[in-house]
Amino acid sequence: MEAKKKVLVIDDENDILLIIKSALHEEGYDVTTANNGYDGLALAEDASPDLIILDIMMPEMDGFEVLQQLRENEKTARIPIVILTGMSSKDKIREALNKGIDYYIVKPFEYQDLVSKVKIAIDDAERQPS
Q1: Selection from 85, 127, 78 nearest residue 106 by Cα
Q2: pLDDT (tens digit per residue) in 105-126
Q3: Residue among 68, 76, 85 nearest 6 (CA)
Q4: What is the C-alpha to C-alpha distance for residues 11 and 45, in angstroms, rounded to an integer?
Q5: 102 phi, psi to nearest 5 deg
Q6: How far is CA 22 from CA 9, 15, 28, 45, in A?
Q7: Dist. CA 122–CA 124, nearest whole Å
Q8: Which residue among 1, 67, 98, 106 is least crowded, i.e. fewest CB within 10 A of its CB?
Q9: Which domains does the chain have, with CATH numbers?
Q10: Nearest to 12 by CA among 55, 41, 53, 64
Q11: What's the predicted TM-score (pTM) here?
Q12: Which residues, at least 6 apart from 108, have a Cβ–Cβ distance to it below 8 Å?
């Protein structure tokens, strides 16, 4: 039996964390959550998730700062990242993609869009050469 894929969700909104955790658990994922960038960075390094879902707009350390530190750390640099954001402007989305984001989901999101984006991101990462 294949091991469960691990997903780390970093978002400052507890209700969003609960919704995502519940949705992905139902789909068979092992989900860990962090409600700020500092805890998220520590968990990313310790847990070695298969995917990170990262909110952009957070206090103290925003998602772009978290992203930069993830990409600069050898242990986390290759983990695929899905940005979860309330920013729907094409310029902001383009900026996120230019900063190394693999995929994005705009809040509010549909359950099936989230699940499908997570599956695609993990599948794509598995096809990449190591």
Answers
A1: 85
A2: 888 888 899 999 999 999 998 8
A3: 76
A4: 17
A5: -85, -40
A6: 12, 11, 10, 23
A7: 5
A8: 1
A9: 6-110 (3.40.50.2300)
A10: 55
A11: 0.91
A12: none
- The 3-class SS string of the chain reads CCCCCEEEEECCCHHHHHHHHHHHHHCCCEEEEECCHHHHHHHHHHHCCCEEEEECCCCCCCHHHHHHHHHHCCCCCCCCEEEEECCCCHHHHHHHHHCCCCEEEECCCCHHHHHHHHHHHHHHHHHCCC
Of 47, 51, 25, the residue nearest 125 (C-alpha): 51
Nearest to 63 by CA among 71, 51, 55, 52: 55
Which amino acid is it at 30? D
Burial of 72 (0-12, 13-18, 19+ CB in 10 A): exposed
Q: Which two tokens stand for residue 101?
A: 């984001």
